[in-house]
Amino acid sequence: MKHHLRRLIIIGILLAIGAGLGWYWSQPTPVLVRLQAVETGEVQATVANTRAGTVKACRRAKLSPASGGVIANLPIKRGDHVKAGQLLLELWNSDLTAQVQLAERQADEIAARATETCVNAGVARREADRLLKLQQQNLASEDAVERAVGQAEAAAAGCSAARESMRVAKTQVSVTRETRERTVLEAPFEGTVAEINGELGEYVTPSPPGIPTPPAVDLVDNRCLYISAPIDEVDAPAVKVGLPARITLDAFPGEIFAGRVRRIAPYVLEIEKQARTVEVEGDFTNPQDYVRLLAGYSADLEIILDTRDKVLRIPTEAVLEGKRVLVYNADDKRLHSRDIETGLSNWKLTEVRAGLTEGERVVVSVDREGVEAGVLASPE
After folding, report:
1. In the predicted structure, residue 24 carries a pLDDT above the cut 60
2. Which of 89, 140, 309, 361 is deepest in the core (most CB within 10 A)?
3. What is the largest CA-CA distance in the chain?
4. Is the whole-model pTM more than 0.70?
């Protein structure tokens, strides 16, 4: 009897364990979710570039001599800082220098002859005036007076012609000097020499129209930089000159530079196989930022359209299609769908005008498998 009772007890225990395990295994497995509490703070409406922008110099010139020739003087090297008007490159121009000297000597000669001619004209004029006075006193013949007056007028005309020749000679000097200047390359502004394409003794050729060739000297002024970035045509109408912006660069991860919109292109770029965009330029608010930057860095421009403070906000990634979110209920440990009314939004935060209260927790990991309304959930 005792043996039979013990057997029944063991069977009962095994059945209870089996039932417990069956119940446990039949329960749904909670979905692991990442939550974020609804909080109060600042939300900004922003637009950003669709492709990487570029740091550009306010002044950058790719320079070449106006005429071709052999490099005879190259007093600079890459990285040199030059002043405005400083010599960068000079082609062989001894023949042109000789022509300038010849034109100057010819101009000096013509000027001397003009002086002589005008002095003689003055003498002839005074002689004519003297004879006119003598004629009034019946002391000079009419024929002598006429000859003197004619000679004075002819000498005056010769003086005018000589002075005009002198001006022509001076102009010729300017022409020959300008011809020589076509072989000299000077810095149009203060800057840094970025590139030099050519060495002493090499022949350089100016770029023909429509055919790009490497410049002899690439001059960059890094004291003034700005961002040029493409903005999608859909976002462009909201962008205005003067709006604040945030600038980020791959070369300085984690840093944000303050900026503002300085220019909006008056046309839409239409590039094959790319979305149509509008080129927007942004200035750096703090000029001291230029010290660390270089023209050519890739950059992103996030333009701030509007700002609201002390509003309810949630991560933008938590908002599902149809303006709804999944709210975690700690009582039943399940996710519940909730319709919300949104306000300002950007890629990071979205304003909540209705549908949520501060402190409620919404699901951020909405793209995980099994995350949907009604399921059991377990916060990370």
Report:
1. no
2. 89
3. 186
4. no
